[in-house]
Amino acid sequence: MADDGADEGAQDLAAENAALGLALEAAHAAVWGYGVVGAALEPGARGAAGSAEAAHRDVRDRVITLLAERSVEPAPAEGAYALPFPVLSAVDAATLAVVLEDGTATAWVRVLDQAAGSGTRELALEALSGAEVRAVGWRTAAGQTPVTRALPGLPPG
Amino acid sequence: MSSLPPPGPRGFSRRTLLATSAAGLALLAAGCTSSRTEQRERVTGEQADQLLGQVGVQETLVAAYTAAGAADPGLAGEVAELAAQAGEQLARLRAAAPGATPSAVSPGSPPSPGEARSWLRAQVAAAATSHATACVNQSGARAALLGSISAGLRGQDGRLA
């Protein structure tokens, strides 16, 4: 029984770590992607992109630290990522930012689904909420409607 | 801002920005059938009661949108989409909470038409905080749902600001 419990605990933590690994990869992509977003914006409009990039860097670093504490090798960032569409204007940049935030939201909802501990859920919740709040601003800038989502990160019911 | 390498074919990953997230999305959509997943989805009596409580929180928020709209008809049109999303969130919560039945709730009334927006925003923020607190105590799909709803309401809060 004790061994069964230990096995289940290890499996739970492995699943949580795997989900955190996916969230880390999404954070890496967001940090890189916000460089593209900022480069496509006028200098005076780059503040939001810089703040968002900083937020993703912070989350990235927290996940790396958490995984390292568990002796899990964190996935490194790719050298670059394929863009889903050309980013040639401010609207393109805002649309890419929405893609980045929606992508991280999906990854963090996955962490919530897989998390074994409340501390990880708190981290996921903070990251998910931040992503959606930023996404609302970018959807507005991109001219998308609606600008809010009922269930960010979740697949349609 | 430092210049960045353009996306290109040589030496660049073909990984799309969201490939990893899409994998998680598919798993969430399809669900899993492993025993470990079943264990994660097993709900304790306390968790079930808490989830029912969150249905009540969301019902109160939906009623708050109606009350705010009645107090300020101009606001009603402006927040119609947000109100619809609150209703969608309620439907998903009810589906996730066995035994949840619609109930009549009252959030009270906005103090005045001029204050309807700030009153509604406070209601949205309170519901978001309540769902977030509950999310931390849940697990599996229930935690994911409550976290998503909380995040969605944080977005609404920002929209109402």
Automatic annotation (TrEMBL), chain A:
SUPFAM superfamilies reported for this sequence: Ferritin-like
Family matches, as InterPro entries: DUF4439, Ferritin-like, Ferritin-like_SF
Pfam annotation, one family: DUF4439
Residue ranges constituting the DUF4439 domain according to the UniProt record: 19-155
Protein name per the record: DUF4439 domain-containing protein
Record organism: Blastococcus aggregatus
From TrEMBL, chain B:
Domain of life (superkingdom): Bacteria
InterPro entries assigned to the protein according to its UniProt record, in alphabetical order: TAT_signal
Low complexity compositional bias, start-end: 93-107
Annotated region (Disordered), positions in chain: 93-116
UniProt name for this protein: DUF4439 domain-containing protein
Organism: Blastococcus aggregatus
